[in-house]
Design brief:
- By secondary structure, this protein is of the alpha+beta class.
- 16% of the residues lie in helices and 33% in strands.
- The chain has one domain (1-431).
- It contains five helices and 22 strands.
- The strands form three sheets. Strands 6, 7, 12, 16, 17, 18, 19, 20 and 21 form a nine-stranded antiparallel sheet that branches. The protein has an eight-stranded antiparallel sheet with strand order 8-9-10-11-22-15-14-13.
- Helix 1 crosses helix 5 (408-429).
- The radius of gyration is 23 Å and the shape is globular.
């Protein structure tokens, strides 16, 4: 065979290989929105190679929810693997039966989930939030010292008006995104009024070096009024159930897969869910000094946690400048934390085993289990007609293997002329 014929054959086979990967990815990993039916909410699905998220339009995980009660039911899963009952997930990813569906929230697998339908891919993952409990606890609320009535508790997102909900993404390893838009009323002591606009963008698999088990939540808060919002805070609440049928989990500070993250993690049987932010570190994420982490008994329902996430707290952990952190004890029940007592501090929480032990002692990790994890944003001041942002992350599982599908940059290189080299490399690896 001539060199030219051999090269053409290699080019053709490599092109078929890439085309087959692209087609299979487009089939089974994509985004979708499912309309409300039989008294249950509209919801969206983001399905990636290892992670699938079911989101309702108001911006929290866990769908669908009942339009009558607002509640999210528990997930129906295999008690050993945590995978959904096959009859509860349709080929298009829809949750079944539509007249009385269970709820699902976040399904994860350390391994790629195959080249079948989007439903096959979802069913190959394990539910990490919704199994083993009577309902799914995951959502957000907001507080301000003025403007958000009543000014003694947080306003939960189920009470807000949804003005927009979109999803996007169509490939196994490409970006997957959901955007929720909400508004809620503002009323100030001088009787001036306005609205607070909230735009929450949830995304993962956003780049070649982004782990597929890290989800970014970027939220913009727009103060549509002539007054300044003082001491504004955002709260995120989650109760992970990674034991599938037994909700008992243990908690720890930091995450295995993201050691630079300022985070709390719930874990059982090496299945982990973490929530947190980043300080100043080489990853160039928005630093969030002033962010607060603490836990609460999971016996407290979602509605109570969202309205009063800080009420039952005695101690908490706060991120300071750079990668410093402090453990504080609350003084009174005030939602403003400036006068709270410092119990322990570190100039760099990353790898500080002593500080991590102190966090465990302060938050009572050794004497409690199955706690909900709660994250508060820094205290924000949002001027009249101004926008502020808070960005945090969820972390699922542990270290992932390198992706098995070429990244978009690699594909572009191959199209430009590197195909034969790839095929020779693959053939050599295969022996």
């Amino acid at each position: 065979m001539s060199q030219k014929s051999a090269l053409n054959r290699r080019l053709g086979l490599a092109a078929l290989l890439l085309t087959g990967n692209a087609l299979s990815n487009a089939v089974y990993a994509q985004s979708a929105i499912f309309d409300s039916r039989a008294g249950f909410s509209r919801y969206g699905l983001l399905n990636g190679d290892r992670l699938a998220l079911y989101l309702n339009a108001r911006g929290d995980l866990g769908a669908p929810f009942s339009l009558n009660s607002g509640g999210k039911s528990s997930s129906i899963v295999d008690p050993i693997t945590g995978r959904p009952n096959p009859g509860n997930i349709g080929n298009d990813g829809r949750i079944l039966p539509t007249n009385r569906p269970p709820s699902y929230a976040a399904l994860f697998s350390l391994n790629p989930t195959g080249n079948g339908s989007i439903g096959d891919s979802v069913k190959a993952k394990s539910e990490y939030l919704g199994a083993g409990s009577s309902s799914i606890i995951e959502g957000f609320s907001v507080f301000a010292q003025n403007g958000l009535e009543p000014e003694t508790r947080f306003r939960a997102n189920p009470t807000m008006n949804v003005t927009g909900f979109t999803v996007s993404g169509a490939t196994a390893t490409g970006p997957l995104t959901a955007v929720s838009n909400l508004t809620t009323a503002l009323r100030f002591d001088n009787n001036n009024r306005g609205t607070l606009g909230i735009e929450q963008t949830i995304s993962f698999q956003t780049g070649a070096n982004v782990p597929g088990n890290r989800v970014q939540f970027s939220t913009d808060f727009t103060n549509n009024s002539g007054e300044t919002l003082e001491n504004f805070r955002y709260a995120r609440v989650v109760d992970a159930n990674t034991a599938f049928v037994n909700p008992r989990t243990t908690q720890r500070f930091s995450t295995d897969n993201e050691p630079n993250a300022f985070a709390l993690t719930s874990v059982v049987n090496n299945n982990a869910v973490g929530i947190g932010v980043f300080g100043d570190n080489p990853r160039q994420f928005p630093a969030q000094p002033g962010s607060i982490l603490f836990t609460a008994a999971s016996s407290i329902g979602e509605a109570t946690l969202l309205q009063s996430p800080f009420d039952r707290v005695t101690t908490y952990v706060e991120l300071t400048s750079n990668n410093g952190a402090v453990i504080k004890r609350k003084v009174g029940n005030d939602l403003i934390t400036t006068n709270d007592t410092i119990l322990f501090s570190t100039t760099n929480f990353i790898g500080d085993a002593v500080f991590q032990d102190q966090v465990g002692t302060a938050l009572n990790f050794g004497n409690s289990s199955d706690s909900s994890l709660i994250l508060l944003s820094p205290s924000l001041t949002i001027g009249a007609n101004q926008t502020a942002n808070f960005t945090f992350f969820y972390f699922f599982g542990g270290q992932l293997n390198p992706p098995v599908v070429p990244e978009p940059g690699t594909v572009a290189f191959l199209v430009a002329g590197g195909l034969s080299g790839l095929w020779l490399r693959r053939r050599k690896l295969r022996g």
